[in-house]
Amino acid sequence: MREFLSMRKEEKEKLIRKIKDTLSSYNKISFAYIFGSFTDSFSFRDIDIG
Length: 50
Fold this sequence. Notes:
- The chain contains two helices and four strands.
- It has helices spanning 9-24, 37-40, and strands spanning 5-6, 34-35, 43-44, 48-49.
- It has a two-stranded antiparallel sheet.
């Protein structure tokens, strides 16, 4: 069983910027979004990207 992780809001925002920068460097990706517990909860198990 995986444990829950937690991050402060500032840490999450920094990680979101890193994900955005990384994905935007791929020409074949025109749209992506983050969803799930990472976006709306203090604790999460993973980051869902669609």
